[in-house]
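Working notes for the structural subgroup meeting. M.R. asked for a predicted model of this chain before we commit to crystallization trials. I am recording the input and output together here so anyone reviewing the notebook later can reproduce the run.

Input as submitted:
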Amino acid sequence: MRTIRILAHVSLDGVIQHENSEDFVYGDWSIPYRSHEGLSAVIEAQGSSFDLLLGRRTYDAWSDYWPKAGNMPIANSLNAATKYVVTHRPNNLEWGPVSDLGTDNIEGIRALKTSDGPDLIVWGSSTLTSVLLEQGLADEVVLLVYPVLLGRGKRFFSDSANPSELALVSTKVTPTGVLINTYQYVGSLRA
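Returned structure, recorded in token form:
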């Protein structure tokens, strides 16, 4: 059985958005806080062998960037990973190796999780993250928490997220003040 690990860059107020838009102009907010130690922690959190589980928007954004990023460890590992894409539009999946999960995405993820293979890493994909936790499919959440407040933007969780409990497994801090917190999914919030 595979482990599903969610990784996210998040502001103190829960924003994960990194792309500029008409109402969000802080697309590069995490760059001043990136460090060699942070990159090493991300590479360690991903593991040496992994596949990617991505929502369609994240897949599309990443397929425009990572294949052109050059020869560096993180780009090489992301480009080599098999990408499993949660999408209702399986056409035009060109950044490979790649596979869609069929017409029933949840059942596709369940089948993928029970198959043999490396861990599944989820980056971005805020809609997918909520579904994975609601369905009890996520095993770990790794949050890279940056010391910034953004006030607006796409959040890691929506207001409709189910109350859940996570157990802190480890925490690290980079020289720039980024906390790297690893949590294990426990289940529904105890009352």
